């Protein structure tokens, strides 16, 4: 069973462990000092930003993180995405990670994505769709989106999370049922 709750500051040591994992660090490219984790995740945990960081559990065990936000709350992302795909201000985006490398490649990612998107329709009643840009080189991520029912709708140049990557991204979408 997949469940989640909002990330709290008490979860930062676990999140830091996940961010240090090579399979996460490759694509998230995050600073991992305790101060950096506090700086980057603290405002959302304290509800000082409109996005959500969701600590995800499988059968009661923490396994990953999903970040969920409305594009309208972050207009700079709407603007960056505009040349590639027109996105509604009410559209929602997600980012995700499975923290434990032993749980990767077993279908957990698509299950998490599917569960969070299913809840998104109730949590964000004005959202017409969920739109997720992914670095084109991150095959595991975009395959997880496809397995969760999203469709590739565009390709374009976006700023990569990791500077070692080129700007080529693929964009996936699922519309409200």
Automatic annotation (TrEMBL):
Coiled coil segments of this chain: none
Keywords: Antibiotic resistance
GO biological process terms on file: response to antibiotic
Stretches that traverse the bilayer: none
Pfam families: Acetyltransf_8
GO function terms (MF aspect): N-acyltransferase activity
Protein name: Acetyltransferase
Species of origin: Umezawaea endophytica
Alphabetical list of PANTHER family matching this protein: LYSINE N-ACYLTRANSFERASE C17G9.06C-RELATED
């Amino acid at each position: 069973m997949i469940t989640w709750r909002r990330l709290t500051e008490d979860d930062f040591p676990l999140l830091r462990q996940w961010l240090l994992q090579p399979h996460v660090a490759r694509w998230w490219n995050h600073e991992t000092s305790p101060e950096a984790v506090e700086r980057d995740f603290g405002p959302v945990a304290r509800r000082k930003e409109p996005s959500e960081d969701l600590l995800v559990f499988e059968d009661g065990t923490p396994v990953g993180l999903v970040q969920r936000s409305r594009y309208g709350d972050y207009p700079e992302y709407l603007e960056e995405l505009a040349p590639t795909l027109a996105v509604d201000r009410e559209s929602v985006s997600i980012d995700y990670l499975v923290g434990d490398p032993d749980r990767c490649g077993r279908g957990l990612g698509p299950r998490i994505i599917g569960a969070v998107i299913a809840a998104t329709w109730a949590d964000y009643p004005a959202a017409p769709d969920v739109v997720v840009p992914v670095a084109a080189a991150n095959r595991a991520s975009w395959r997880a989106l496809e397995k969760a029912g999203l469709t590739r709708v565009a390709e374009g140049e976006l700023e990569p999370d990791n500077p070692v990557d080129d700007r080529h991204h693929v964009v996936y979408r699922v519309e409200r049922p």
